Amino acid sequence: MRSDSVESSGQRVILLEGRVQALASRITWLMVLLVVALAGVGFLAYQVRAAASPVEEVPEESGPDVVQATRLELVDEQGQLLAELGVFEDGSRGLRLWDPEGRARAYFRLWREGLPSIGFLDEEGTMRTLIDLAPTGTPRIQLRGDDGRTNFRAP
Predict the structure, then answer these.
(1) Which of 58, 61, 136, 140 is 20 to 30 A from 127, alpha carbon to alpha carbon?
(2) Residues 6+ apart with CB under 8 A from 141
(3) Cα separation, 34 vs 41, whole angstroms
(4) Counted domains in the chain
(5) Cis omega (within 30 of 0) on the bond before 155?
(6) Which residues on neighbouring strands pair with residue 129, listed in sequence order?
(7) Count of C-beta atoms within a 10 Å radius of residue 97
(8) Could you tell me if residue 64 is inside a domain?
């Protein structure tokens, strides 16, 4: 009977290891998608800026144009918000991406304390995946369930 218990515990550990590896793979793909999205938003912002200002000769002695703002909103042709780049209500700064239904779904932030984080939210606005650095500099990953409680945390 004891060997059955040990065997089933071993099988559970193997199953959990497989799940953790699958989740790690998904997180890697989500990170790749976020980087691609960030590059796309940067490219789109550049295109919007280029289309909005007429092309004119700039003398070599003058420096590049500088645009200053506390927030930049990228919208589609209908005016629907696609992305925000700037300082947010809580004092953090970063990039927030919106879905076609007008819901914030992903962000890359630098908090007031200088700590970076990447987050993915579900349709209800519940944080589901969080990747950040602890104040000690240790990287952390959290995966949360439908109820918002942490299902997986590393370390």
Answers:
(1) 136
(2) 27, 129, 130, 131, 152, 153, 154
(3) 10
(4) 1
(5) yes
(6) 120, 143
(7) 21
(8) no
Question: Taking 80 as the threshold, does the pLDDT of residue 7 lie above it?
Answer: no
Query: Does residue 106 fall inside a structural domain?
Result: yes
In a domain, residue 61? The reply is no
Q: What is the pLDDT of residues 81-110, one digit of tens each?
A: 999 999 988 889 999 999 999 999 999 999
Contacts for 87-92 with beta carbons within 8 Å, 24 or more apart? none
Q: Do the beta carbons of residue 110 and residue 104 sit within 8 Å? A: no
Per-residue pLDDT reduced to its tens digit, 54-74: 545 545 555 567 778 888 999
Q: Does 98 reside within a domain?
A: yes
Mean pLDDT estimate for the chain: 79
- Eight-class DSSP state of 85: E
For residue 145, what is the domain's CATH number?
3.90.930
Domain, as residue range, for 36: 2-54+69-154
DSSP 23-77: HHHHHHHHHHHHHHHHHHHHHHHHHHHHHHS------TTS-------SEEEEE-T
Spatial separation of the C-alpha atoms in residues 119 and 35, rounded to whole Å: 13
- pLDDT, one tens digit per residue, over 102-133 is 999 999 999 988 999 999 999 998 999 999 99
